[in-house]
Amino acid sequence: MNRLTLPWALLALTVAGVLVTSNGCSDDAASEGSDTIGDLPASTPGEQTVDTGSNTTDSAPSPARTATNGTEATRTSASGDTELSQPKSKPQSKTKPQSKTSDPDTSTASESTASRSTTEVGDITETVPAEPQDTLAPADLTDPVSVDTGVSAQIASIDRVEAKAKLPGEVAGPALAVRVRLANVSSKPLDVSGVTVTLEDGGGTPSVPLTAEPATPFSGTIQPDDDATAVYVFEFGPSHSEPITIGVNYATEAPVALFVGELS
């Protein structure tokens, strides 16, 4: 062997030794790693193990989904199985039926009271007769009449007119305009807002009052020792006959003054 070959042979041996040594260390490290992994606890579904050298962190299993509005709940167990839990039904509250207690004495008393009240009130279909109203003896159309103490009535004039219909039920055509005068000879004001005047033909048929001009009824009061006049219009066509009768009443409690006669 020459001098140049010897150094290369030594270099080759040195490299071979290094390689052998490296393989031995790798096998030991692999063996130790296998032992360490074998000692770790087996991971279960839902758990993760992280080896940080000294600390081990276990992630908690996913929380179970809670049912709402009466639906089924889904829960994942530690073994990875999915369980369905039925919603718990709330117990229905039982309502005790109210006892109906009637007192026969009270019912009888109530019925008796209702019957007595109905009897006292009377039947709504019952016709109550009107209070009779005094009527004075008929007077001539032009004569004044003393109705009672302090009040006198008189027909001042009667005119034939052509009246117009103003309200429903009124008939336009020939009519009579009756002017009435009331005199207050008392010491107190006389209320004439409730004065009524009527007119009937020779056959006793009432004439329809009209509100169109020149009708101007009484209103307000008449002062002592004073008088007032008002005009009342009545339909009076060819079908009506004479003589006519005019009634004047200044108050419901006062007598009715009658005036009878032929039209001039």
CATH level 3 topology of the domain at 139-261? Immunoglobulin-like
Give the neighbour order of strands across the main sheet. 6-7-8-13-11
The helix content, as a percent range, equals 10-25%
CATH architecture verdict of the domain at 139-261: Sandwich
Content-based structural category:
alpha+beta
Q: Note the total helix count.
A: 2
Mean pLDDT: 73
Q: Which blocks of ≥5 consecutive residues have pLDDT under 50?
A: 25-85
From the alpha-carbon coordinates, what is the Rg to the nearest angstrom? 62 Å
Major β-sheet annotation: 5 strands, antiparallel
SSE order, one letter for each helix or strand: HEEEEHEEEEEEEEEEE
Name the beta content range.
25-35%
Globally, the shape reads rod-shaped
Ends apart, CA distance between termini: 189 Å
For the secondary structure, the number of strands is 15
Question: What is the CATH first-level class name of the domain at 139-261?
Answer: Mainly Beta
